[in-house]
UniProtKB/TrEMBL annotation:
GO molecular function, one term: metal ion binding
Any one of the GO BP annotations: tetrahydrofolate interconversion
Species for this entry: Desulfosarcina alkanivorans
Sequence positions that bind ATP: K8, Q9, E10, I11, R12, R139, I140, G141, S142, G143, D144, G145, Y146, Y147
Full protein name: 5-formyltetrahydrofolate cyclo-ligase
Cofactor field: Mg(2+)
């Protein structure tokens, strides 16, 4: 078990080095390509309620994706994190500029005083962050396990889509029993279907 965690940390360190090696222009250009691929993706276009994320360090940036989702008439759901319970709640966001506050992870998340929780079975598609992924849908997140706990609670019909750069793909993610896969991965070069 410790060996798997060490390997994951090693991969996180490698991905951090990869991100630091990218110029701002390359980062922005590749992020825009991933964003465009997502907005051409049939499962995304057909969905009404989309769960997105606000990116942390070493994850594909989503600020433009969130903004564009509203333009496409989507109902946008973002996670609110509870560190004491090690859980997250999907919450509907109507006005990102007014409805988000800095949460316990140091990133923006829905303000529970302004946003309503959304039942998981209402979510049509879940866009899942990752620090690293493999072509089989294995993923490494921040290490807190929030998404590993919520992915199995989403309906089978809810597509789980990971967004990563090609440089975040690794040959094989070391998986533990609690780790969960995504169904589809979108990079700046391709769409990978695990299903």
């Amino acid at each position: 078990m410790d060996e798997v965690r060490e390997k994951k940390q090693e991969i996180r360190n490698d991905i951090s080095t990869f991100f630091n090696s990218l110029s701002d222009e390359t980062l922005q250009e590749n992020t825009r390509i991933i964003e465009n691929r997502l907005f051409e993706f049939a499962n995304f276009l057909e969905s009404k309620i989309v769960m997105l994320y606000v990116n942390a360090e070493n994850e594909v940036a989503t600020d433009a994706i969130v903004k564009r989702a509203f333009e496409f008439g989507k109902i946008v759901v973002l996670p609110a994190f509870d560190k004491t319970k090690a859980s997250m709640r999907p919450m509907k966001v109507d006005h990102p500029e007014k409805d988000l506050i800095v949460g316990p992870r140091g990133i923006l998340e829905p303000n529970p005083a302004k946003c309503k929780q959304v039942p998981l079975d209402c979510i049509d598609i879940a866009i899942v962050p990752g620090v690293a992924m493999d072509e089989k849908g294995g993923r490494i997140g921040s290490g807190d396990g929030y998404y590993d706990r919520i992915i199995p609670e989403l309906p089978m019909t809810t597509r789980k889509v990971g967004l990563v750069f090609e440089g975040q793909l690794v040959p094989q993610v070391p998986m533990e029993s609690h780790d969960k896969h995504v169904d589809i991965i979108i990079t700046e070069k391709r769409v990978i279907y695990k299903i």
